[in-house]
Structure of Putative dehydrogenase:
Amino acid sequence: MTAELSTVLLVDRHRGTLDQALEAVRTRAFWSPHPEHPKAYPDPEAGRAAFEARLNARFALDQPGTDDWAGEEHSPYGIELGIQYPHPDPDVLLPAMRSAVPAWRDAGPEARALVCLEIIARINARTQEFAHAVMHTTGQAFTMAFQAGGPHAQDRGLEAVAYAYAEQVRTPQSAEWTKPQGKRDPIGLRKTFTAVPRGIGLVIGCNTFPTWNGYPGLFASLATGNAVLVKPHPRAVLPLALTVETAREVLAEAGYPRDLVCLAVDRPGEGLAKTLALRPEIRIIDYTGSTSFGDWLESHARQAQVYTEKAGVNTVVIDSTDDYRGMLANLAFSLSLYSGQMCTTPQNLLIPRDGISTDQGPRGYDEVVADLAAAVDKLLGDDARANALLGALVNADVKSRLDAAPGLGGVALASRSVAHPDFPHATVRTPALISLDGAKPDAESAYLSECFGPVSFAVAVDSTADALELLRRSIRDKGAMTVAGYTTSAQVEQDLEEVCFEECAQLSLNLTGGVYVNQTAAFSDFHGSGGNPAANAALCDGAFVANRFRVVEVRRPA
Amino acid sequence: MTAELSTVLLVDRHRGTLDQALEAVRTRAFWSPHPEHPKAYPDPEAGRAAFEARLNARFALDQPGTDDWAGEEHSPYGIELGIQYPHPDPDVLLPAMRSAVPAWRDAGPEARALVCLEIIARINARTQEFAHAVMHTTGQAFTMAFQAGGPHAQDRGLEAVAYAYAEQVRTPQSAEWTKPQGKRDPIGLRKTFTAVPRGIGLVIGCNTFPTWNGYPGLFASLATGNAVLVKPHPRAVLPLALTVETAREVLAEAGYPRDLVCLAVDRPGEGLAKTLALRPEIRIIDYTGSTSFGDWLESHARQAQVYTEKAGVNTVVIDSTDDYRGMLANLAFSLSLYSGQMCTTPQNLLIPRDGISTDQGPRGYDEVVADLAAAVDKLLGDDARANALLGALVNADVKSRLDAAPGLGGVALASRSVAHPDFPHATVRTPALISLDGAKPDAESAYLSECFGPVSFAVAVDSTADALELLRRSIRDKGAMTVAGYTTSAQVEQDLEEVCFEECAQLSLNLTGGVYVNQTAAFSDFHGSGGNPAANAALCDGAFVANRFRVVEVRRPA
C-alpha cells in the first residue's frame, strides 16, 4: 500500500492520544485533546470564508448512486443556505458501501482507530468553519456552536473510538489452546479471533446538535469496521456534510475506500430515513430525535441494532440549599442556555408548596419561583449577553410551543423577544416559567409531557417526599436525560440517589457554580443512562460499542 | 452483617479463581477450575442417592407466591420423575424479587461475583447429583450429562461472571474531576459511578442442555445485580431446580435475600413463559429454543433485553483432506454424539459431485458418503459404546423427524435402534444419513430447514465454489451455530474464512482428532457468533453482559 497516510505515520501522530483517551475513560478525570476556547483556533476569518463559500452551491462528494440533488436549509438566523447535496439511489449506494467493508475489516482495530483519530483531528482543524455551519443550522449562538459543535463533539467522537478500540482488543487476535489428556498427548488448537463488522451503520442526525449527537454513533460504527451512511436532519445537513467530506478525504489518503462514509440527504417529505432504516444492508442505526420515530425504529428496524436518544422530562427537586443565590444563578443559566433547546435542559422544578429552607432563611414557594424568574431576568437583562446565551429558536415548532405556554398555567416569567444586532430575522426568545399546582390533576398533562424549548414548569408539590415520588414517576413513565437536586439534608440526598438508582437516571446535586446540569464532559460524564425511556443507550460505554461488531473464531489443529 | 459467608471469607476462597478466569478470557488459552473427569468427584453413590431422594416428592423452595405445585417430567430413559415444583403467582413473586434487588445492587460488583463463584463451587460439589438430574431430563448419556451438564456448564457460568465483573469495574466507583479555567480557579466535581441492575432477568431453559445453556444468562444477570427468575423447560426442571436451591442457600448464608433467585414451573399448556416475558418487572430474558418462540420474544418483550439462541443449519464443506480416515472418524463422532441433538451438530455435509482429493487418492461423492456411513457404523458397532455416545432421544418430536427422514432423499445410512441394558424403555437411535442432490430444487426444502436430531444430509454440489455459495446462503437465511471445513487448499481455506467473516459464523477447519466441531470450551471458544439468525448473542463476550446493567453517575461540587 502506498497510501499517503501510512500506518506508521498514523501511529506516530495519534497512538499517544488514543492511549490517553483509553486512560481517561478508565479514570474519568478531566481530559480533552481539543481546546474549547476559540482563541486556540487560528484564523477565524478563513473559517467564516470557508463557510460562506459553501452557500448557494452544490456540495459534491463524488459518491456512487447520486441520482439527484437535494437541500432545503434555512438558517434560524434568517440566511438561506441554498446548498444542494447528493440525493442517493440506495440500490446503487448501499451495495457500493457494502463492498468497501472487507478492506476496512481487514485493517484491524488499531489501524481503524488511528484513521478515525486522523478524521477527528482534521475536523478539529476546521473548527472555525464548523462553528458557522452549526450556528446556521441549529440556531446555537456562535460560542456554543463553536464549543458544543466543535471540540466537545470531537471529544465525544474520540471517546467512542476509544471504547470501540478497547472492546475489540479484549479478545486476542490469536491463541494457542492446549488441553491436557492425562497420560496421552495433549490436544492442541490454533485459534484466530477476528472482529467483524455488522455491515452498514446508519446515523440519523438531529436538528439541534448534528455533530455532538452524531459523532458517537458515527465513530463507534466506523471504528468497529462498519461503513457509515449519514442521514442528517434536513435542516442541519452542512455540519455532517463537512464531516463526511473530511472522512472520505482521510480514508482515501490512508488507502481505504472512501465510500466507507457517505451522505444521504432527502427531498422534502420523502421520508428517506424510514426507507433506509429497513434496508437489509443497514445493520446498525444511531438516532437522536422524537420519541415517536425512535419507537418506530426500535419496533420496525429489526434487522439492525438500534441506539436511540428520544424525549424525556428532566426534573429538578428543590428541597433546601445552603447557597440560595448560587442555586438560582445556576438554574437560570441552565434554563436559558440555547433557549432550553437541549435534551438535558431541566423542565420541571419541583418545589414544596410550604417553601424551602435556605442560607438566607426560609423561602415560600412563590418566593422561590419569583426569585428564579428574577435571576433569569437578571442573567438575560443585557441583550448582547442574552443573544450570546440564547441563540435562536431552531424551528417554528419550538416557537409554537412557547407561544402556547401561557395557557398551561400561571405565568411566573413571560418570554420576551430579543433583537439580534446582526441577524434581524432571527427568532430569539427568553425562557418562560409557568407555575403549576402538582396536586391538580389537569396540570399533569402539561408537566408530564416533554415541552421542548424555552418553557419550564415550577410545580408546587406537597413535600419533598411528594417530589421524590413524582420524580420517580416522571423518569419511569417519560424518561429523563438529567435529574438535578438541591438539598442540605443527607437523608434527602440519599433518597434522591435511591430514586435515580432504581429508575436509572443521571443525577447532579447542588450545582451552584460553573457546572450546569445540562452539560456533560466526554471521558468523564455519561450522557443519558440507557436505562429509562429517554434513551436506550448512554454516551459512551461498553454497551454502546460491544454489539456493533462480532468476533469470528477460526480454529485449526495446532 | 453477621453472615456465615463473610466477604473476607469469599475473597479468600474465590478471588484467585476470579482473577484466573479474567486472565483466561484475555488469553483464551486452555483453563478450567472444574475437572471434567468423573473420577475427580468423590462418592458417586451419594450423588445417585441424592437424585433418587428427589423423585416422587415435592421440591420445596420456600418462595413467596407459591399458589400450587406443578411438574410433569418423564425421563427419556423411561423413569417417571414425579417431582412437584412450586407454581408461582407472578403478582406476588415478582414484587418480592424486585424488592430484594437494592441490597444486592449495594453489594457491588466484587461481592456479587464472589457470591456467584460460591454458588458455582457448591454446584460443582454436587456434580454427581446433577449428572443424574441432567441425564434423566435430557436423555444425555451419563458421561456427557456429567461433563456437559456439570463442569462444562459451570465453566460457562463462571465465564459469564468474569465478563460481568470486568464490565462493571471498567468505570471507577468514584472520580475527582478538575477542569482548568485559565487564570481563574479550576472547577471541580466529585463523581460517583454505580452499576445498577435492570431489574429481574428471566431465564427460559431448554430441554437438551438446561444447565449449559442456562448458566451463562443466569450468572450474567445475577452478577450484574439483577434478580433472576428461572423458568425451566417443563421436561428439564430438576437440574435448574437444584441450581436455584443452591443459589438461594448461598445467598442467604452470605446475608442477601434468597428471593434474588427463584424458580417458576408451569402447568401443562399454561404458557407461563409468555406471561412472564411480558411483565414489566422482567427487564432481561435469556432464551434457548425454537426459532418461532425466540422470534416472538424478540418482537414482543420490548421492555426487556432479549438474548436468544434459536435454530440454525450447520454446514460442513468437504473440499479435500490429507487425513481421510481422521476426517471420517471425526465427523462420525460429531454426528453421533447425543444423537445429533446439539445445536452445534453438523446437519449438511456439502460434497462436490465429482468427488474430492484425499491422502488415499481421489474419492467420488458416493464413496465419501458410503465411507462416512461406514465410519458411523464402525463407531457405533458395539452397543455399549453406542449407548455411551448416543444417549436417548429427548422427546417424541425428535423421533418423528427421524422416522420421516428416509422420505427426504436417498438413505445412505439407516438409523437403527439400540437396546439399553439398564433402561429398556429408553429410545436410543443411531443417526441417519440422507443423500440429496443440491441441484434439485425440491431437495432444498429438506436441507435448508433445521432437522434437529440424528438426521444429517450429504448434499452433492457442483463444486467447492458452489458449496461456498450454499454455505453463505445457509448462514444468511437460516443461521448457523457452527461451520466446519475440510480442505488442503490455502485458497479454499481463505474463501471459507471470508464467507464466515462476512456472514458471521464460527469456523472449525480440518478437525481430524479429538476436538469436534460441536464442542466449545469456555474461556477460549465462542459459542455462536451473535451475528447470524441462529443466535443474537455469543457465549460469552462483552456484548452479552454490558447491557444487563447501567451506570448511574451522581456528581456534586468538589
Observations:
- Chain B has a mean pLDDT of 97.
- Chain B touches chain A through 69 residues (CB under 8 Å).
